[in-house]
Amino acid sequence: MWKIEVGEAPALLVDDLQDGAQNDLELKNGICKATATVGDKTYVIGGADDGTLSIEVQIFDRNLGEWVRPTVRGTKPVSCKGLSAVALDDKILILKKGSKPDDQIWFLEVDTQYVRQQQEYLGTEVVAWSKGVVGNAEKPVVISGPSGVGKGTLIAMLMKEFPSMFGFSVSHTTRAPRGMEKDGVHYHFTEKSIMEKEIKEGKFLEFASVHGNLYGTSVEAVEVVADAGKRCILDIDVQGARSVRASSLEAIFIFVCPPSMEELEKRLRDRGTETEEQILKRLRNAEAEIEQGKSSHIFDFILYNDKLVESYEKLKKLLGLDDFVTTTKSAGHGEIDLPIDHSVSKIDNKIIINRISSGEKESKNLIILDVSSLKGGAPGRTRGLNFQAIGSFSNGLTEIEGLS
Ligand SMILES: Nc1ncnc2c1ncn2[C@@H]1O[C@H](COP(=O)(O)OP(=O)(O)OP(=O)(O)O)[C@@H](O)[C@H]1O
Ligand SMILES: Nc1nc2c(ncn2[C@@H]2O[C@H](COP(=O)(O)O)[C@@H](O)[C@H]2O)c(=O)[nH]1
Question: What class does this enzyme belong to in the EC scheme (predicted)?
Answer without folding.
Answer: transferase
